[in-house]
Give the backbone structure.
Amino acid sequence: MGKIIIEEMEFYAFHGHYQEEQIVGNRFLVDLEMEADLSEPARTDNLDDAVNYQQAYQIIQNEMRRTKSYLLENIGKRILDALFTEMKGIQKATIRIRKLNPPMGGPIKSVGIKMSRKQQVP
């Protein structure tokens, strides 16, 4: 078992509760941690045996650019759903999404959520 970590993927997107956020947009940072069995790709040095980081990035990029969401929680759920639907080998995934400089009436560096999901065993 091991962890694959992708940190501070930056996206400009149009998510938010307020109409202005959905028009003007904002910067978001996304971190992803995936737990998987890394022994086979470590042994073979073959991408076909590994959880593909590029595929994970593309899934997150698609979800960040797709449908506008009012809440970070909704974006997190959509990303986790897509990761487990489109990728193989992930046993657990944790996503952290931060909105930079949110319009909350004062100086705030970011607000964010962190969500995790384990692979469902049939």
Remarks:
- The chain has one domain: 2-118.
